[in-house]
Amino acid sequence: MTAELVRGQNHPLTQTRLEIRVSAGAPVVAGATLSDDEGRVHGRDWVAHPGAPALPGLEVPRQAAADHRLAVDLDAVPEAAHRVSVLLALPTGPGDPDRFGAVAAPFVAVTGLDGSEVASYTITDLDAESAVVALELYRRQGAWKVRAVGQGYAGGLGALLTDQGLPDARALAGEIGEAVARGLARTVAPPPPRTAASGASAMADATGAASHAASPGTHPSDGPPRSTQPQSPAEPQSSPAPRPAHEPQPARPSGRTGPVNYTHPGRQAPAPPVPAPTAPPAEPGQPAVPVAGDATGWSMDERLYNQVWGMFEDLARCVAAYRSAVDFADSRMEQELDKALSDPRSRIGGQGDAAREAARAKHGQLVDRAREVLDRDLAQLAAESAVVEPALPPAYAGWDNPVWHAYGSPMEIPMALRLGDLQLPESRGVGLRIPMLVRLPLERGMWIDSGRSGADALTESDELRRRALRSAVELAARLLAVYPAGEFAVHVIDPAGSAAGALAPLVRAGVLAAPAAGVAGVSDVLARLTQRVDLVQMAVRGGAADALPPDLDTAEQLLIVNDFPHGFDDRAVTRLRYLADEGPAVGVHLLMVADREDAAEYGPVLDPLWRALLRLTPVPDDHLADPWVGHAWTYEPPHVPPGSRILEQVLEEVARARREQGI
Fold it and tell me: What is the DSSP letter of 106?
């Protein structure tokens, strides 16, 4: 899995022969330096650049281009070198941009020789800088790691190399500029774009002669010309099915300084057969206008699913960038204060007070600037959410969405199901919530935790249990509603009968038989579902699906377990663990409504059970984390609005469709 780095984050390298790929929105110069354990470059022979592209273990391109590939062999790097720094700089020719703030944020990826990404980093927060240290590969205790640096220099390559301790840095920077200019002079300009008027003559010329010229972004010795268009940081090979905090998995945590990019990598897959709606062109200098379904996909549902994931990734990135900027400001202020107080002379005559005030003022400016960027991105995401939310289909929509009032039994299973909402502390001010979607069919069971949590320690335990049961009923109703009639069934184990009131909507609609009660009821339901799992597993493994008993219900099964472990003996607990592990693969899903403390007498025996289930809470709680930057996401369960009868109406429609199917 690719490590999506943010500034300052590191990642171990398990390979020593690597390729570093650079993608930018404009031609850039790529180079690299070797430095010792203190970060100092000993001389020119420790700098790889277009004029001297090869060093032991390093080879860089000879020309400025929008896309680069740098070859690295860490085993061949000299022992005295402890760091390999990857440098990017803007060319200094006429017409070239003079600052990174005027071009798209460069993307850098460390890959294996087979092209598989190891780590990636999008360099954001650049403005007046014209040179930047993108990444560094460094030795640590005999092993190599990669760190996202993103340190920019407004003074260009000369200032960058000076900061790394190179004595004649300015002179070498000038020579690099000359080498780039000489390379550009040797290239052949590309042909002008074809127009309707010139199309016929151009085709005629092509039939009579053929020519091969290097593009401006290549050098004759570099092999075939490479595209000068920026590559997407990650081109999905298929429809993305990431699992966020909700189902932790993948993405690209990197901050942004510009407005939210509505064409981020998750929305740049090859165009689907059905074109997605496009936004009207934005006014110059204004943010893009959000449109529901502007992501890629074969259907509107898939495009909306991918768009929701894009919003989740965007929120993770911009908050990560803000937190990183605040951490940097805090660290810088501490360093400046330490420096001011370390000299006894600065404590006399008010010099120390002035230094402290200057450090605090600079800290405030950095934080204010970061907050301004964050507020801008949050406002755009909130605008996109306001457009996307009303367009969601029932499976993705909240209970307060009007789409439920036009609900009809579906003909096919949707891509995903909404389990609630996610938000970060920074997004609460604008009311931004991201739908928490999980793919269907479910790949793991769920556990609605009815115990006390740190986020809501004041709620009475009985009230938490009532809320947990209500959440379970609403989730079961949603699953019944999004599956075609007859393709989903619900069973309930309620040993003490304490869930009768909460289960009433399901029972009245006729979509749920009487819950199993007592020890005998628990044993009977678990035995039947365990037998079903065994039969289906044998049929699938033996390739004999037609040999299943005719009375076997082939619909997906959901087992709701309330008041665990009351009514469970050791045999029943073993069967429950078996269903949690083996059931999802053959269509048997578990939904636990339980307080883990109630089962504490089992000790670590049940630890695998809790780990196998996706923990949800009946009250807002920040127990979910994404795998990219470790944000603690606040999960909010979906609830039917007070006084609404939408749940009963939906269940009545489900029951009607089941009756028409003879169920």
Answer: P
